[in-house]
Amino acid sequence: IYDSVPTNEDINDMVKNGSQLEQSIGVSPAMSVASYLKMEQRSLDIESVFQRYKFENADLSVHQFVCYPVVTNINLENLAFVHRSIPNMNVNLTEAQKTVMSNERLEFLGDSWLGAFVAYVLYRKYPFSDEGALSRMKNAIVNNSNLGKLSQKLGFKERLKENIPRSKTKIKDRSFRQYADCFEAYLGALGIDRFSAEFLDVVDWIEELSQDQFRTLGGTMEKKPLNKNAKGELGNYLQFNKLDAKVKYFCLNNQPPFKSEVRLGDIFLGMGEGQNIKEAEQRAAMEAIDDIDTIQKYSIHVME
């Protein structure tokens, strides 16, 4: 509060000259309390603050703008509204970077959260309904058409950052799909933001029960997405280098999974593993590129 609350002059300016949202925030009880706390910082008495401001638990004008649970982590909230088409526009990003810079992973998480939350709500709300009736109600709630409508109603449509051709968004199902995905991504962000410690023992239990699957399938999932242009990028960095040496790749075995290493002359740069030699070499180049200090040490170019 002490670092972020606007000055009284700024608050007055918000109320007089700001947008409708800014005006509502400026006259809100939260802003009044925050401003008072900041002014009384030296002789702060929390109890007297709440005695001074006795607000009724009623609908306030600012509530019309935010009518859903808020994600307190601003970076997490912003990520929920970034469609994959945005990072895809940047040709300089790797697949791994594109993945973490869009809301797809949050969407995956939110999809699962949504199913669990709706099931829990229905379980409590309809204590005499059988599994079939509960499933039909769940399907009526959890579908792209309904979630797309909810997303638009909540204002997520305006907040979603995307670069999707208009010809695709004119198709009703596709339009609802991207907004439904956004709804799920926001729910995923909420799940991370508000995850309770009470669930941690359950998570640990499920993780322990899943060890066989992790061992069987997890190896490939832990790998970074393959950068198919890694060898080219490494070549661009070191084509002209301070050692006047060549970048060379060496295959270390003759059966899958193949292992390769990349060297600049006799200098080791990186090692990679793949189902074929080409993938192993690309992954070796990826490891080399990640070591910016070493690349900068030998390259004549300035690393960005």
From TrEMBL:
Classification via CDD domains: RIBOc
RNase III domain residues: 46-195
InterPro entries for the chain: Dicers-like_N (IPR048504), Dicers-like_N_sf (IPR048505), dsRBD_dom (IPR014720), RNase_III_dom (IPR000999), RNase_III_sf (IPR036389)
Domain DRBM stretches: 229-294
UniProt keyword Hydrolase, yes or no: yes
Listed PROSITE patterns: DS_RBD (PS50137), RNASE_3_1 (PS00517), RNASE_3_2 (PS50142)
Lineage: superkingdom: Eukaryota
One annotated GO molecular function: double-stranded RNA binding
Biological process per Gene Ontology, one example term: regulation of gene expression
Keywords: Endonuclease, Hydrolase, Nuclease, RNA-binding
Name of this protein: Dicer
